[in-house]
Each structure stands twice: as structure tokens, then as C-alpha cells.
Amino acid sequence: MTSNRSAPVLALDGPSGSGKGTIGQICASQFGWHYLDSGAIYRGLAWLAQDHNVSVDDVAGLVALADSMELTCHVQENDVAKIEINGQFVTAELRTEETGEIASQIAPLAPVRASLLAMQRRCRKAPGLVADGRDMGTVVFPDAEFKVFLTASAQIRAQRRFDQLKSKGFDVNLARLLESIQARDVRDSSRAESPLKPADNAYVLDTSDLSIDEVVASIMDYVNKR
Question: What is the CA radius of gyration of the chain?
């Protein structure tokens, strides 16, 4: 896969549960662009680490897994993207809280981030790319034509994740989800490597009181005006 630096990018960043995945897939579908769920890359590595019994403290082992990982995001509008890793669909496995916690622990590791950076940039292909994550507009695609930072209150984001996981049949606890999201926010925003923050020229959009259609319309208006 060859990166095309001339292909436009919509960088869609924000904390866990802010709606990046749903919004990103809808935008990709409407634009007819490729889609990258960068969180799935870290969750995918976390799943591989569990599957291969590689500890989060084994940085060399994690890097080796990252270097061998092939990941594809298949758009499923109004649902989570179907994730394929090394030829195996592992979408459900990647959505568990355990996998998310491990992903959050390995994400700050500089050698791991470096090994996954090139993979993400190779996803930039014509006619364009919608990339969602936490550092798409600041680190991965700093030259992206469009940068959006989605946010929402921790309570709203916990409820969204609770509803999402419940609908998939997972046994989850709202209070524990809220605690996990708040802890992850602190970790993501205070880490030395690629901390969670809006790009200087990002369009910041609070989705707490907005419907999915309203968020998409707002982003489309922003893109069209650019």
C-alpha cells in the first residue's frame, strides 16, 4: 500500500466515547473516502499481545507484533467498523473493556507508536481518507486539510459506550465505565507521547447535546466552507 500525500485527509480526533467512530464512518461513506479507525490499531495490537501472551512491559515483543500486523477497517455505517487483523475478523474482541485498557497502557510507549505511525500514514490514499483517533490532526496527519476535534462530557460518553456495549450483548457496569473513561482521559491527555489535545487549527465540536445527524451536518458544513 503506497501513501499518497496529495490525497485529502479529514482528521477526526477526540476522547473515548465522543462519537468519532460512528461519525467518521458516516463521513467516509458520504465522501466515498477510505476510513481509518486508529484506535482499532492499538486495540488490535492489544488483542495480539493477549493472544500471544506478550506483556505490556515487553516493549520489544510489542514492537515485533506491531511490525507484523496487517489491519483493514471495513466501513459499517451506523455500526462499529469491521476490523480484520492478519486475515481474521476480530471486531467483537477489540471492543471489550479489557482490550481497551491494555491498548491505553501500550499507546504511550514511544517505540510502539513509532512502529505504528508508518502503517497509519500508508492508509492515506486517493480519493481521500477519514482518520479518527486521538492524534490524527496533531501527529499522524499534521498537514491534513480538515481537522475536527469532537468532545462531550464524561457522563455522556460513558452512557454512550454503555448503550453500545449492551446492544452487543456485553455485561457492563455504567459506574465502572465512567471511572474507566475518566482515568483514560487523564492518561491520554497527560502522556508525554502524542497527548490528547485539539490541533491548533482544529474545529472543536461538543457533541453532548447533538444528534448524530447534527454532528455530521456540522462537519459537512465545515468541510464545504474550507
Answer: 16
Task: Give the total number of structural domains in the chain.
Answer: 1
169 is an annotated ligand-binding site residue: no
- Grid look-up 504511550 returns 108
* Length of the chain as a residue count: 226
The answer on whether 18 is annotated among ligand-binding residues is yes
15 marked ligand binding residue: yes
Task: Determine whether the annotation assigns residue 21 to a binding site.
Answer: yes
Q: Using the predicted structure, report yes or no on whether residue 159 has a pLDDT greater than 60.
A: yes
Q: Is 19 annotated as a binding residue?
A: yes
Helix axes 38-51, 110-121, angle to 10 degrees: 130
208 annotated among ligand-binding-site residues: no
In this predicted structure, which of 33-37, 59-63, 132-136, 192-196 has the lowest mean pLDDT? 192-196
Q: What is the pLDDT of residues 5-48, one digit of tens each?
A: 679 999 999 998 898 988 999 999 999 999 999 888 999 999 99
Q: Between the CA of residue 60 and those of 99, 110, 115, 169, 191, what are the distances in Å? A: 19, 11, 11, 35, 20
CATH value at residue 179:
3.40.50.300
The answer to whether residue 83 sits within a structural domain is yes
16 annotated as belonging to a binding site for a ligand: yes
